[in-house]
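Here comes a specimen:
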Amino acid sequence: MTTSHFPVAIIGGGLGGLTAARLLHVHGIDATIFEAEASAGVRTQGGMLDIHEEDGQKALRAAGLHDEFREIIHEGGQAMRLVGPDGTVHLREVDDADRGRPEVDRGDLRDLLLNSLPDGTIRWNSKVSAARPLGGGRHEVAFADGSVITTDLLIGADGAWSRIRPLVSAARPAYTGISFVETDLLDADARHPRSAAVVGGGFFICLGDRRGFLAHRETDGSLHVYTALKVDEDWLDTIDFGDPAAAKAAVLAHFEGWDEGLRGLVADADGTLTPRRIHALPVGHRWDRVPGVTLLGDAAHLMSPFAGEGANLAMLDGAELGQAIAAHPGDVEAALAVYEEALFPRSEASAAGSAASLDTMFGEDGLEKTAAFFAGAQGREQSGTAPA
């Protein structure tokens, strides 16, 4: 099979890879994304994201897409409530549209980035099977369908289990001790009014005894729920997720005595339950400069979701990488050095914060400590001393 050459190859068409391609396009630099999924619509890109002023929105401004981003904001999505196992509300925040972290649907944001790229930028159904250096900063990438490419600049934006990461680092994600079971309650106000009332209009957190529920009100009126438990890594393997009733019973066994409205987030769920172990790379993950290749997003700094930074950092990574390449025409190594110099300390700080949030939420007195954290954050905002 003939080997094709691409000057810039981005492996992975998530938010970070798309942002990198968009920044390069803005600066007149051709790049090609190779995405394992068969098409843009093959998988639901559900879930809400809070896009932060200091990173995600900064990336969108650099990409020339901030005005379009404002049009997909989920009004009311910044509201938040924190409750205990008995259903008592311990903290409530209204959506005042002034905290710089508006909520958007992940799928809408991905579509915004996809539609900003020229036709043909993305090669779908391109699952990487191997990658190897050729010398002089060039790399060869082989795909599951037997095709092979070479590239002068290889960007690994391929997520937690990156096939590109081994080119620069031997690090592998480790289990954090937290497992999720995801559920959806469709048309919540009409079909699940009790659950709709429990969650409210935005983000919902319930914590107690190293377990709890995290939920979002979606733009389509559904509730997307993450049941979170501090359990052994093999716990999910003991549950038959092919039998929704049995899976619900197994999960709810960990919530005996909790408020029935909270238990209903699992008991009344529509469709199947989706298991997910939460992994993270070591805090401070970094690598020595390797010619012609770099990483962004989860491939570079996978962390738990408890600081809300994953998507935001991936987009900022993509934007800053694109800007660095544009600022150093003909000198890829200078561009990558500048990019990684900023990437490493930024991602280390966020990963440390995410790990600390996990320990707070799912440690001893997690509810009380989390309430104190949010109350303190409210105070800092009101006094004008909240961190940027």
